UniProtKB/TrEMBL annotation:
Pfam families: DUF4302
Tree of life domain: Bacteria
PROSITE patterns in the record: PROKAR_LIPOPROTEIN (PS51257)
InterPro entries attached to this UniProt entry: DUF4302
Phylogenetic lineage: Bacteria, Pseudomonadati, Bacteroidota, Bacteroidia, Marinilabiliales
Name of this chain's protein: Uncharacterized protein DUF4302
Length: 399
């Protein structure tokens, strides 16, 4: 299912008279009326310096729409690597649409995840401080939505500070003041998992769409906690804390250092499937793959064989073979939800030394073999997070 996103839009109905024997309903021609509508929409985009901010697929995107049909981007996606100034147009096919005429951060996010992205939007509703869009290409009633909120240049810096706060640790603890309620929040891009502990000690997960905005953390649909619904947790400046006050309840999300409770049996579940691929890295480890690609152009991903003890880089077409890396790893149980990984310094393949000598390869080996161990956190069906016990800002997603 594609994500619900936020943006600023306008909807209008255009009418023409088909009866030549009647006086015209409008003084202007259909072409003039259409041009007036498009001018109105462009004016909405460019007024008051033209700044708008959108929260799209887990990223914040600040845009400055200019009168000369250019738009400037500044975003949190991929450390801003896709930010640039491009041309845009407000045009019409069947209904008014906003068209980015060359590659932008929207297309980059779409290409990164075809299942949850979109980059062609139709105007839906327009107000002074908000424009709502709907997908141009989605079929059926459940269309992707995007909202632009009126913004200022400082908004993106505020969001970046919130992201830095959230990246301090994988573990985010939820509590209600004056209550025994406890939960843990797991976030990944535009998705969030709310993990609660049932009365019989089992962990129950519920998924939400999620955005980090200039005001704090936004969930869709609203999270239900002890009979109240919460959409926004306000950022508490200067504290590792986000809070909501609803119907007399104060609910906090606090950055933590460890799980709320041990997850019984998770080590055995993790070890039950030999083959795994590293599918994601935290911000603290995000340099691993780009660094490797500088030396190994075909590098695709790391594969882990937990039973056989291999960590292999996969680079199809690379000279010397598609795979190379390391052997003689052991994943030892240190607690119900902790594994300690040791390496017997075995090597595999012709180009293992290219990984070993690379800063990205070194960082991954240091992370995996930290003697403090790794927390194992179940993410979904045979997918897991491995989180550094010594530094929980470092974690990977495997599955």
């Amino acid at each position: 299912m594609k994500k619900i996103l936020y943006l600023f839009v306008a909807a209008i109905s255009l009418f023409t008279s088909c009866d030549n024997e009647q006086d015209p309903i409008f003084d202007d021609s259909p072409e003039t009326r259409i041009n007036n509508v498009l001018t109105k929409y462009k004016t909405a985009l460019t007024k008051d310096d033209g700044y708008w901010i959108a929260y799209y697929s887990g990223s914040a995107i600040l845009m400055k729409f200019n009168e000369d049909n250019t738009v400037e981007f500044e975003s949190t996606y991929s450390d801003g690597s896709e930010d640039r100034t491009i041309s845009y147009r407000v045009s019409i096919t069947q209904v008014p649409e906003l068209v980015f005429e060359s590659h932008s951060v929207f297309q980059a996010i779409y290409e990164d995840n075809l299942a949850t992205g979109e980059y062609e939007f139709l105007f839906d509703k327009v107000t002074d401080d908000r424009i709502d869009f709907i997908s141009k290409t989605d079929k059926g009633a459940n269309k992707t939505k995007l909202t632009f909120f009126k913004g200022v240049p400082e908004d993106i810096a505020t969001v970046k500070k919130i992201i830095s706060k959230m990246e301090k640790s994988f573990f985010k603890h939820v509590s209600v003041e004056g209550s025994n309620y406890k939960a843990m929040l797991v976030t990944n891009g535009g998705n969030a998992i709310w993990r609660t502990i049932s009365k019989d000690g089992k962990i129950e997960n519920k998924e939400y769409e999620f955005s980090m905005t200039k005001d704090g953390l936004v969930f869709s649909p609203a999270v239900e906690i002890e009979g109240v619904e919460v959409t926004l947790f306000d950022n508490q400046v200067g504290k590792d804390l986000f809070s909501a006050n609803v119907e007399g309840k104060t609910i906090n999300i606090e950055i933590g250092n460890a799980p709320l409770t041990e997850e019984s049996g998770v080590y055995e579940e993790f070890m039950a499937t030999n083959f795994k691929v590293i599918n994601g890295y935290s911000q603290a480890l995000s340099s691993i793959v780009p660094s490797l690609k500088e030396d190994i152009k075909q590098f695709n991903a790391f594969q882990i064989y937990v039973e056989w003890g291999y960590l292999l880089g996969y680079a199809p077409g690379h000279e010397g073979g598609n795979w190379a890396g390391f052997s003689k790893f052991a994943f030892t149980k240190a607690a119900e939800d902790i594994t300690v990984v040791t390496w017997g310094y075995g090597a595999y393949g012709a180009w293992w030394s290219e990984i070993y000598g690379n800063d990205g390869g070194k960082l991954l080996l240091e992370f995996l073999t930290d003697p403090s161990g790794l927390y194992i956190v179940k993410a979904g069906n045979d997918t897991y997070y491995l989180v550094s016990k010594a530094d929980p800002s470092k974690y990977i997603l495997v599955g």
